[in-house]
Amino acid sequence: MDLWLKEGQIENAAMTYKIKETIHTEKTEYQDLAIIDTYEFGRMLVLDGIVQTTIKDEFVYHEMISHIPLYTHKKPKKVLVVGGGDGGAIREILKHPSVEKVVLCEIDKRVVDLSIEYLPEISCGLKDPRAEVFIGDGIKYVLEHKNEFDVIIVDSTDPFGAAEGLFNVNFYKSLYECLTEDGIFVAQTETPFYLPHVVKKVYTDILNVFPVTRMFMAAIPTYPGVYWSFTMGSKKYDPLEIDINNIPDLDTKYYHKELHKSCFVLPKYVKDLIEK
Ligand code: SAM
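Above: inputs. Below: predicted complex with S-adenosylmethionine.
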């Protein structure tokens, strides 16, 4: 018998994946969690029926959400990841020798525990002595830490449930306070194809808080619409003004120095959406 996962983020359209094996399912305090093995994408973390990360395409998302802000900052030492319990962003952040400490603030301990158990290729950075895991709400954590992080990465689920408060102007103001004086933050900001209203609101809110606001995009096969947006709010550095010749060759599969600026060149429908 064929078993398929039907992804549930978009109301009237869906992507489906043929399941090889259901490895683990549970209802955590915050969400329905599943780890499944699929024929095309390998193991997947699925939360509330929505694909979060897969062994085959996770590199795109984790490299882009990490290296774009880290190479835009001159010398990031202390980094915060809000959400991101699978550890993929942590693995990429730790490729930067200037980073002395990275804190992962994830609300759901079970995401961290099960990623360590079943997704070791993604979660491996969590074992590094520079990584600290804090289990708690990112909104509260950011409010309680002022002027502390050089880079903050908001690697959250979509804007409902526990993550709803990570997509509003008050949270962006508290991120501004939590950053050091030349700090930068980046968030995954959804699909402009299916959720243009969300993308526009988030971009406008960030623009109202940060002097430098830039959107970049990357093609992630398992995210609805494939072409996914990320928005950066920066106090000082502009990713379009850095000298890409200073970016070293990294052990990456998607990110490279020429892409550092070209990913900010947006298709016309996305440009129109955020500029008009
Ligand atoms: N790459 C993913 C995506 O966009 O599909 C996100 C991956 S990561 C697994 C998202 C994590 O954000 C989840 O594990 C979830 O528990 C966590 N999260 C949601 N709301 C949060 C909050 N308020 N504070 C901290 N973590 C939160």
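Residues 30, 52-53, 61, 82-86, 105-108, 111, 137-139, 155-157, 162-163, 166, 188 surround S-adenosylmethionine (CB under 6 Å).
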